[in-house]
Amino acid sequence: MSALTLAVLLSLVSAVAYAGGAILQERVAVSTPQHTYAPLRRPVWWCAVALNGLGALLHVVALAYGPLSLVQPLGALTIVFALPMAALFVHRKAGPTAWRGAIMAAVGLAGLLSLTGSASEQSLEGTERLMVALVTAGTVLALMTLAHAVHRHPVVRSVLLAGAAGVAFGIASVFTKSVAVEWTEDGTFAQFSSFLVIAALATSGMLLSQASYRGAGLAAPLATVTVVNPVVAAAVGLTLFGETFRYGTTGTALALACGVVAAGGLILLTTERISGSRKAAAESVAAAVPAQHTPESPRAITGGEPLTRRVGAPARVTGPRGRKGRGGHYDEWYSPRDERIKS
């Protein structure tokens, strides 16, 4: 087996591991809504943590055997693998809109990453590390605050938390790259503070991603984390590490187009979930209406379609079963044909 083939295989298995971890996280979020961030007593959650750790390890090993331009885009397949795996293992089927959004996000992200070139290996200096750490902490806290401010919109809240998780994961990758370069150059573990930052960012990202799955399903939060993570890392690479897009101006234009496609996929997934939530709420309300009819309601009497009740109609007609309501009014039932039936 060639090194390139091994890199592709490891990248695919890494994407499957990430997808499996996301599915377990979503299941834990559904079953334990009271534990928003860290359901530590759930063994299934620890399995999800292990799968995410395995995915990260396989991704790093794949980078040792294959080029970054090949391995990074293959990571975008996580969202594509997650949808059929969820349908197979937890019977959570995705609709056509979710599939379109997932494919758009994966294709856009893969194209963007494949166009990102790499300059000479560089690392962050002390001042740059402090600046990046402070900006990252501020961004994550701002997204968390905004997410809790829109708690009445669970899908928007989940996407904001997933975005915060993606930012934390992306900057953790930046610090990891910086430490790896310095380790290669110096061969010492002199950057202890960087290891602390990496641990804090990775833990925060894991907890935020767990919280993002509560009330928003699987596809939208997973796609947000999958896209935001490498995009943030690539943005830092472009601004601080001297990385550039390939093919000059043409590559830059193509990268922007890929970014638009990925963003469109995320928007499609978010709106699809919001519309699905509204439809489910409407169906639940409609299902609760027949239960309000008494055995003596016009539905039971006529055996026909459900009737609309009008309370407080003028007391012009009295019948053997008429009941006088408040203020000398009767309760009346109107059928779809506008037929009055006295209750």
Describe this protein's structure.
It is a single chain. With 343 residues, the chain is mainly α. The protein has two domains: 3-285, no CATH class; 292-342, no CATH class. It has helices spanning 3-31, 43-65, 68-74, 77-89, 96-114, 126-149, 154-186, 192-212, 219-240, 248-288, 298-302, and strands spanning 308-314, 329-334, 340-342. A three-stranded antiparallel sheet has the order 1-2-3, with no helix packed on it. Helix 4 (77-89) packs antiparallel against helix 9 (219-240) and helix 7 runs parallel beside helix 9 (219-240). The longest helix is centred in the C-terminal third of the chain and has 41 residues, at 248-288. The termini are far apart. The relative contact order is 0.11.
Helix content: 55-70%
How many DSSP H or I helices? 11
Q: How large, in whole angstroms, is the Cα Rg?
A: 27 Å
Strand order of the largest sheet: 1-2-3
What percent of residues are in strands?
Answer: under 5%
Number of strands: 3
Mean pLDDT: 77
Main sheet summary: 3 strands, antiparallel
Distance between the termini: 81 Å
Q: Can you tell me the overall shape?
A: globular
Computed structural class:
mainly alpha
| Total individual domains | 2
Low-confidence stretches: 291-305, 309-343
Order of H and E elements = HHHHHHHHHHHEEE
